Amino acid sequence: MIGEDLRVEDVLRRCQMPPDEIRWVLTSDDPAVVHMILELHRERLEEELAERRKVLWELEAQLQAPSTT
User: Fold this and answer.
1) Max CA-CA distance within the chain?
2) Contact, 15 vs 41, CB < 8 A?
3) Nearest-CA neighbor of 9 among 23, 20, 1?
4) 24 touches 33 (CB < 8 A)
5) Angle subtended by helix axes 19-27 and 31-64, to nearest 10
6) How far apart are CA 53 and CA 34, in angstroms?
7) pLDDT per residue over 25-57, tens digit each?
8) Which candidate, 11, 16, 12, places its Cα nearest to that of 48?
9) How many CA atoms within 13 Å lie on the side-chain side of 14?
10) Alpha carbons 39 and 48: distance in angstroms, whole number
11) Structure confidence at residue 1 (pLDDT)
């Protein structure tokens, strides 16, 4: 879980949430809005991770392929 010494804003920054979205989370009185923003950011992070994994697999395949020069 989140350590008690970390503020919500700090946690969101560490999760690379854009400043505007952090502000919306911190100022919204509507739990549904907060949930939507957090869910959208989770999805964004998952997409970025999937892309990075793909790139690393492709790089590894290139590095292990026999040289044609």
Assistant:
1) 62
2) yes
3) 23
4) yes
5) 150
6) 29
7) 999 999 999 999 999 999 999 999 999 999 999
8) 16
9) 8
10) 14
11) 47
Q: Which two tokens stand for residue 54?
A: 């793909």
What is the value of pTM for the model shown?
0.76
Lookup: tokens for 18 = 């854009």
Which residue matches tokens 């999937």?
Answer: 50
Q: Which residues, including other chains, have CB under 8 Å from residue 15's CB and lie 6 or more apart?
A: 41, 45
User: CA dihedral in degrees (22, 28, 34, 40; nearest 10)?
Assistant: -50
Helix (H), strand (E), coil (C) string for 20-47? HHHHHHHHCCCHHHHHHHHHHHHHHHHH
- The rounded distance, in Å, linking the Cα atoms of 34 and 12 is 12
- Residue 61 and residue 46: Cα distance in Å, rounded? 23
